[in-house]
Amino acid sequence: MRIRRYLILMGFMLVGVAVRGDTIKLKDGTVLEGDVTAEDDATISIHLEYAGGTIAETRQINKSDIAEITRWTPEQRAAWRVKRDYERLEKYELNPNASYEPYYYYQVINDAFRKFLAQHPDSPYTSNITARISQWEAEQAMVASGKVKVHGRWMSAATGARLIERDQGQRLLQQGRSMVAQRRFDSAVEQLLPILSMSTQTNLVQDARPLLASAYPQALTSLSRQRLQLESNVSYAQQRVALAQQSVNEAEASLKQAIEDNAPTMAQARAAAVWARGDLNSAQDYLDQVQSDLAVVTRKLAELKADRIPERLAASALDSQASQNQPAPSTPPAVASGAPDVLVTILTWTKNNWPLMAVVGVGILFLMSQLTKR
């Protein structure tokens, strides 16, 4: 077992130092490195991978175009496949700030890590993959117990949901404000509207409500103006297409007549027909674009009206008022009677008038001493 693993490791060294794969050098200087998959008397097929295996293709090359071929040994081919499969696992990393959904842990552990160990039981990466499985299983157990990781801390799912909702709301609020400043009112409404549904984020709802109330009518006005302008542009584009089509018909008729007459102006007529056809294509492209823009604006306007934002704003305001009108918790009698306020007032007056109090005190003591002597 150890000897076999040593041979595989030596294969990795050969792959890294000697040759990266089957190498085909073409007569034009191009070098292709990959895996030869098929070969006949006239052609050879090589499987090529780019960007860590995310992009792959198989190219068929004529042998007459090849200057030189360097082929893998079986050991090099096996070592390359192990290394390739291990590098594909590098994308699976635990997030230090957040946890995943339960199904994702199962998918990575079983469909990626354990699959690699089953396919390459003697690879030099076995201990590394085993350690990573342990880390993923430990976090999987935390999630299964009802915990979530938010900002790098484990907490209950309810607490985590509130924090995630708060972060999302703050991000939406910031984006909404930015879009209002840019006068992109329809986009601002799109960002601010979800905040109204965040029942646990009262402060964010209160901040979003006036922005949304201001952005909504301006979004309606802006989209309505855009629709009117685009409708006008569509009408203009249709006229342009009609005129261009008329020019094409006339140019092609002139060209046909020039060909029949074998007139010396035939080249000019042909050029005029080509120009007219190009102008028609340009006009048609412009019509297609403005019709597409009109469809987008019309859809946005319909969706904005369907959201019934004024009613939702009113409902949100009522909910906020109801929460504010809830009876305050009972207070002790001394607090309810305002006794602390009286005490604070007395202490403040004494502090500000202590010289007068000292003179009065001395006077009282003098009078008492005189009365005692009598």
Give a verbal description of the structure.
This protein is 68% helix and 11% strand. The strands form two sheets. A five-stranded antiparallel β-sheet has the order 4-3-2-1-5, with no helix packed on it. The protein has a two-stranded antiparallel ribbon with strand order 6-7. Mean pLDDT is 83; it is low at 1-19 and 328-345. It contains twelve helices and seven strands. With 374 residues, the chain is an alpha+beta fold. The radius of gyration is 40 Å and the shape is flat.
Main attributes?
alpha+beta; five-stranded antiparallel β-sheet; 3 domains; two-stranded antiparallel sheet; disordered N terminus; SH3 type barrels; 374 residues; Helix Hairpins; 7 strands
Compose a concise summary of this entry.
The protein contains twelve helices and seven strands. It has 374 residues and is of the alpha+beta class.
Low-confidence stretches: 1-19, 328-345
Give the percentage of residues in beta strands: 5-15%
Number of domains: 3
CATH topology heading of the largest domain: Helix Hairpins
H-E string = HEEEEEHHHEEHHHHHHHH
Give the fraction of residues assigned to helices. 55-70%
Tell the overall outline: flat
Judged by helices, strands and strand pairing, the structural class is alpha+beta
Counted beta strands: 7
CATH architecture of the largest domain: Orthogonal Bundle
* Largest β sheet strand count, sense and barrel closure: 5 strands, antiparallel
What is the CATH class name of the largest domain? Answer: Mainly Alpha
Determine the mean pLDDT.
83
How far apart are the first and last residues' alpha carbons, in Å? 120 Å
Number of helices: 12
Side-by-side strand order of the widest sheet: 4-3-2-1-5
Which value, in Å, is the CA radius of gyration? 40 Å
